[in-house]
Amino acid sequence: MKQSIGAKTLAFPTPVWIVGTYDKEEKPNVMTVAWGGICCSKPESINISLRKATYSYGNIVERKAFTISIPSEKHVKEADYFGIATGKKVDKFAATGLTPVKSDLVDAPYVKEFPLILECKLIHTIEVGLHTQFIGEIVDVKADESVLGGKGLPDIEKVRPILFGPEIRTYHGIGKYLGQAFSIGREIS
Amino acid sequence: MKQSIGAKTLAFPTPVWIVGTYDKEEKPNVMTVAWGGICCSKPESINISLRKATYSYGNIVERKAFTISIPSEKHVKEADYFGIATGKKVDKFAATGLTPVKSDLVDAPYVKEFPLILECKLIHTIEVGLHTQFIGEIVDVKADESVLGGKGLPDIEKVRPILFGPEIRTYHGIGKYLGQAFSIGREIS
């Protein structure tokens, strides 16, 4: 029996992604987003949603670029902190001891210590309501050599990304391998 | 050292969500999407991206509604099948033995056997490129009583959602609890 629990932003899983931007004084900032996803295969694009009140919102409007740094679970505390503190008041890199690296492709910084990086150019801005959705074209993906697996692609079990559970407000790691996509369903038909 | 791996739709984690729609003859259809995410807190909204070639694309344009059924890992084969087969040729509910249920709030069906359901009204359509992004307002969330935990909210460890790794094409379950959001980062500052 299904129970109605109301209109809520409640879907599993949501990602834990760190958005990197520069402000007008070239100060690098990072903030955590869980509202986001991939949204197009050609051009390769990703969407993130931010409230206008955030420091990063103004930076993206100004610079028309952002990065996404995907943290491993060992950095879950830093990822949480990046969503609590505001770049208006603090230097989040200095507070955590993590290292900003200037992207060579877009006008934004990423987090050196995080294993998987997307460099994005802003291509669409959609006003949805409390949040503004930014769609960025992914111009490059960069990965630490230590997380690469077969075919030169990142191994998700080495990256160890973090998941967020909205409403219940919990972080989880990734679990067991369940099967190969576009393959295990073929036995049904 | 970071290695460039090119412009790819490569971010972890992405979800495995089953989009439910009706066609003109009231035939219920389902398809799997990994391109999607929550995109706004007020109105509560979620985005999914579909290619125009899919059967579901036309159904959403016509009905202006869709559901998202979130499968548990025990249904990973059915979830994969829903992304392989096309509703143009087959009845995916009949093929899997799963049960369509008509939403009482939006003009779309959901999957009875899946534990967490979002019922959505189409509010925005954005042409990004190969994919069209549909933004739906979440008018209700419904959950099986068996997956509810504290505060009447779904327990992610009971829902057991599936994650998809783009490019590497693997499915994974959720893993260990890593901490409470908006909390564990407070010790940094």
What would your notes on this structure say?
Two copies of one chain form a homodimer. Chain A contains four helices and 13 strands. Chain A is mainly beta and 189 residues long. In chain A, the strands form three sheets. In chain A, strands 4-3-7-10-11-6-5 form a seven-stranded antiparallel sheet. Chain A has a three-stranded antiparallel sheet with strand order 2-12-13, with no helix packed on it. In chain A, a hairpin with a 6-residue loop joins strand 8 and strand 9 (109-111).
Oligomer: homodimer
Q: Enumerate how many helices of chain A there are, as a single number.
A: 4
Strand percentage of chain A lies at 35-45%
Going across the major beta sheet of chain A, what is the strand order?
4-3-7-10-11-6-5
Salient structural properties:
7-stranded antiparallel sheet, 189 residues, 13 strands, mainly beta, globular, 44% strand, homodimer
Please provide a brief summary of the model:
The first copy, chain A, has 189 residues and is mainly β.
Give a topology summary.
The structure is a homodimer of 189-residue chains.
Chain A: E1 2-4, E2 14-15, E3 17-22, E4 28-33, E5 36-41, E6 44-51, H1 55-63, E7 65-70, H2 76-84, H3 92-96, E8 100-102, E9 109-111, E10 116-127, E11 131-144, H4 156-159, E12 163-165, E13 170-180
Antiparallel strand pairs in A: 2-12, 3-4, 3-7, 5-6, 6-11, 7-10, 8-9, 10-11, 12-13
